[in-house]
Each structure stands twice: as structure tokens, then as C-alpha cells.
Amino acid sequence: MTTTLSFPVPSAVGSLDQYIQSVNRIPLLTEKEESDLAHSFRDDGDLDAARKLVMSHLRLVVAIARGYLGYGLPHADLIQEGNVGLMKAVKRFDPTRGVRLVSFAIHWIKAEIHEYIVRNWRLVKIATTKAQRKLFFNLRGMKHDSATLQGDEVLAVAKQLGVKPEEVREMETRLSGHDVALDAGPDDDEERFAPIAYLADPHAEPSEVLAEQQLARLQDRGLHDALASLDERSRAIVSRRWLSEGDAATLHELAAEYGVSAERIRQIEAKAMQKMRTQLAAFA
Description:
The chain is mostly helical and 284 residues long. The chain has helices at residues 16-24, 31-44, 47-55, 58-66, 75-92, 101-120, 130-142, 151-161, 165-176, 206-228, 232-242, 251-258, 262-283. 63% of the residues lie in helices and 0% in strands.
């Protein structure tokens, strides 16, 4: 039987600080309450029990997400991805194993945040395999400053992480590298050449230029038609998230604007993107 508990629901509107204050007011579960709710969800499919398990651990996601702010990604999006991991943990949690949900959920929350960071931290992906991702996150944590690792330090890190020294050096090079703009910035000296000026263009032949321009027009029309196939709210969400010339709107900002949860905005966005992909594939 489900334990009777009262949970203040985090507001769908307001700032991120207000959301964090709301989740911190949600009471923690005792071991028995957690066990009763987990059994109700696993044995009886009680979705309300699953909701209470998720709600009582939202503060854990906030705490974990705060540790990844150094990657320059929005705190709200890190929390949202961590919440997805928390829901996956609740779905897979087995209360008969004698382990508290908090210990089980940490892995799933970090896994979703790690995946999000690797997808979005740089345009040129720095970690594509499971081993590289492990090295990426561990190396950042083991380096205490921005100085380059010396020979003995490289060997020590490689031994501790169980990888080759050359893999440590390669990942350190990727981590210390900076994105370089190909085009000159608005404040650059007119006499300076941006990197793009040194690149030869193999497609400068007039017929190829015209063909590329025609293809671009067709692609623009396809994107326009795909956007037009969406309802007004979905079109606005996709445009604000992916097609904005300025800073992209976060899930929580859109949630506040439409008066729904950030998870609902994520669902609408995913459904709209899938519909657009199908539309563009048919157009192509």
C-alpha cells in the first residue's frame, strides 16, 4: 500500500533559484517510506508512487548538476538532463536489494549529464568512445591547475586510470585546446587575415557555386515547410531552442512562458524535431 505523503510541487514558472528552493523544501523519505513506494511502483505500477520517489530526490540532481558548471553549459539544462537520469533510476530501482535509491540514482544522473556534456561542450567532439569519456571526466578532475602534465605525472595518471600514456597526452591536448574562429571578428584589424583566408576553396567553379546556391534554396524551403507543419506552440519552441540568432532559450525559460513543466517542454521539442526529420526526409 502506498505511503501517504504530501509533496509541494515545484512551480512551473519563475526563476531557476525559485525551482531550487522549491525542490529543497520537498521532504526526504525514510527508508520504510522509500521501500513502500518502490514496492508499490514495481509490483502495482503505481505511477504516483514513482512520482513521489522522483520528487523526493530532485535536490540530489541539483547538487550533482552544480558540480558540472565548469563546462560552461546552462545550469537549468544540466538539471533537466539529470532529472531524466533520475527517472530512469526510479524505473530500474529494485527495493529488495537493500540499497537506498540515492546510492543507485547517482550513477544514472551522472550518466545523463555526462552524455549531455559530451554532446554539447564543443563543436568538435573530444570524447567519442566509452574509454575516452571516462578519461575525459577523470582527467579534468585529477588536474589541479591548468599547467601541462609532466612525464612522471602522465605516467602516474595513465597507471591510475588504466590507459596508455599517449592517450593521456592526447586527451590533455584536446582539453587544453581552444576553439578558433575561422572568420575575422568585428574588432579585428582589416589587414589581418583570418584562418579562413588561408584555406583554398575547391568548389569555386561557377557551375558548382550555382548548384550549391540552388541546393541551399531547396533546403531552406524544406526547413520552412517542415516548420510550417508544426502547431504554433511546437514551432515557437523549436525556433527559440534551435533557430534563434541570440542565446537559445532554456527549457525552464520556455516552461515559465507556457506555464508547463520543463519536462513537458522537452517532450514537445522531441516530438516536433522527430516530425521535422520525417518531413525533411520526405522532402529530400
